[in-house]
Write a structure and sequence with these properties.
Distance between the termini: 36 Å
Number of strands: 5
Radius of gyration: 15 Å
Number of helices: 4
Strand content: 15-25%
């Protein structure tokens, strides 16, 4: 059975992707900073869904999530870097901490995920990475 781990999967596009891949027969990892919503979605989907904590800006979270998920799923075939945040409005009206948080999550989070998942993906006969971003990335 193929497996997929999705960051930011508790709601929105991540949750929709989790549902779609679950319906296609994948083991689905629903990882998010919002563990309550992630757990609710995993319970809603069924026994081939697993939820867990993941702050994509934290490399230790990535390592823990990937180890936990791959042991449960038997490996990793697809990583979806979906987690992201958006602060809207003029640049000068957004405080510096928020700008740094955007980079930490939307840029460094993707790099953290790709780098951490690579050893697991290299073991799979079929492996892919899907990186998503909003129109704000433009």
């Amino acid at each position: 059975m193929l497996s997929i781990l999705i960051s930011g999967a508790a709601q929105g596009i991540g949750a929709a992707a989790a549902k779609l891949f679950y319906q296609q027969g994948y083991k689905v990892g629903i990882y998010d900073i919002n563990t309550v919503q992630a757990q609710q979605l995993a319970q809603q989907l069924g026994p081939n869904a697993k939820a867990g904590l993941l702050d994509v800006s934290n490399i230790q979270h990535w390592q823990n999530a990937l180890e936990e998920f791959t042991q449960w799923a038997g490996g990793l075939n697809i990583l979806v870097n979906n987690a992201g945040i958006l602060y809207s409005g003029p640049f000068e009206d957004t405080d510096l901490i928020s700008h740094h948080r955007t980079i930490d999550i939307n840029v460094k989070g993707v790099i953290n995920g790709c780098h951490s998942a690579l050893p697991y993906l290299k073991k799979a006969a079929f492996a892919r990475v899907i990186n998503l971003s909003s129109a704000s990335a433009i």
